[in-house]
Amino acid sequence: MNRIWRYLSVFATIMILIVVLMGALVTNTGSQAGCGSSWPLCNGEMIPTEAQKHTIIEVSHRYVTGITGIAVVIQAVWVWFKWRSKETRILAVSSVFFLVLQALLGAAAVIWSQSSYVLALHFGISLLSFASVLLITIVVFEKTYWKTGRISFDLSKGVKWNFVLLGIYTYILVYSGAFVRHTDSSLGCTDFPRCNGEWIPPIVSRAGIQYLHRVLALILVIWLIGTLIYLLKKHKDIPLLSIGLLIAIIFVFLQALSGIFIIQTNMMLVFLLLHAFFVTCFFGILVGLTMVTLRKHTK
Questions:
Q1: DSSP states of 208-222 as a string?
Q2: Are residues 136 and 207 located together in one domain of the fold?
Q3: Pick the catalytic residue: 45, 58, 142, 198?
Q4: Minimal CA–CA distance to 23: which of 131, 133, 122, 94?
Q5: Claim to verify: residue 169 and residue 129 sit in the same structural domain
Q6: What is the mean pLDDT of each run of 10 residues along the chain (299 residues)?
Q7: Which pathway or pathways does this protein act in (predicted)?
Q8: Looking at the structure, do residues 162 and 273 belong to the same domain, yes or no?
Q9: Are residues 209 and 252 in the same domain?
């Protein structure tokens, strides 16, 4: 029976990742209005009769989200009653809450026009939904498969707070990236590393929005590398933490590389989707590391 629940958890995690990427596909292909202003129906129909590209993309996103929602709710209910710990119950509630919130924000964007500030929240909420499901999956494997059981480390408050602040800062960075896209600022800078031939472009402009996102990303890279160096020096006895952070940094560099290619290829769709994929993987790893560092260490 535990094997079935592990399969379900992996399925839910993969599906929520697909939902995030399909949301990026909807945004980057301009398919938000593929079903008109109708929700949950598509142009007033359950199955649209007109198979236009934007309609297919939008309605497919809705169907996949619905299937994913069923899997996430089943997973959440099971872990709620299976393990009555505070951690699992918080994660169970979070996974359902953020998935529903994500769907409601998407519905609101269809039915009513939304500002760029609100639209940029959608991707960030999607990441929180993915992270919640991923963390539940980690807990499921800890309790039913891994012989090591519950993962925890003996760390100082400073290290714990560092990971918490890294997570918060990353979320701000993700929001800035989504804001770049929803304000059509992806090509505000047409070169790299400079911006339109300048090191500091006018801040109140599309170039300024793009430039601010770059600066925030650079700060994150420096912060992550500094954290990794500290862990390698002070916590050589915890290789899992350093290896996890190294993998996270690799995803950050891949995300930056895909961002450069977005500019160089004039926003080719494959690089836009890779950009969303890499940041989702990075965020998931970082949140997973944050969870295990915050746990009370038990020998």
A1: HHHHHHHHHHHHHHH
A2: no
A3: 58
A4: 122
A5: no
A6: 86 93 86 73 74 82 89 91 86 91 77 66 86 93 78 86 94 87 78 82 83 90 95 88 94 92 87 92 94 80
A7: Porphyrin-containing compound metabolism
A8: yes
A9: yes
Residue with tokens 């950009």: 275
CB of 220 closer than 8 Å to CB of 228: no
Same domain, 58 and 192: no
Final residue in a domain of this structure, among 80, 115, 150: 150
Overall number of domains in the chain: 2
pTM of the model: 0.88
At 116 the pLDDT is: 66
Active-site residue flag, 45:
no
The parent domain of residue 298 ranges over 152-299
> Cβ-count burial of 39 within 10 angstroms (0-12 exposed, 13-18 middle, 19+ buried)?
middle
What is d(CA 265, CA 36) in angstroms, rounded to the nearest whole number?
30
Question: Both 179 and 295 in a single domain?
Answer: yes
- Separation of alpha carbons 298 and 286, rounded Å: 22
**292: nearest Cα among 255, 238, 246, 211:** 238
Reading the block at residue 142, the tokens are: 């800890």
- What would the two tokens of residue 179 be? 């804001």
- Both tokens of 279, joined, read 């940041």
